[in-house]
Amino acid sequence: MSAGSDTGDGFGTVHWPTEIRLKKEEKRLEVDFDDGRTFSYPAEFLRVVSPSAEVQGHNPSQKQTVAGRRHVGIMRLEPVGNYAIRIVFDDLHDSGIFTWKYLYEIGTEQDALWAEYLGELQAKGLSRDPRR
Question: Which is an annotated Pfam family here (predicted)?
Fold first, then answer.
């Protein structure tokens, strides 16, 4: 099967990771994909766009704006089948299953998603900093 073709894995995976690097000290995850693209995701970004029901809700009107995660880190990654990883954050959030498709999509849309998140924080009077 050629790179970039739909594999029929049931999850819509088109681009597969070739290398995943957890940089704990930098609070960052880097993923290289089979089309040559590399994405570097800050832990805070991954935490606030987690695909979990806790963050995304069960429909768009239930989506939560997660504040106070400026300093969040990643404790570990856990494989989920051959299609995803579970990210365990140091705030103990671990219910998001990050599929390869989702990681690729948020990688390509990272700047827009981040700007949207910052706008939501501002509109709701929230902060990236934890409550004291």
Answer: GBBH-like_N
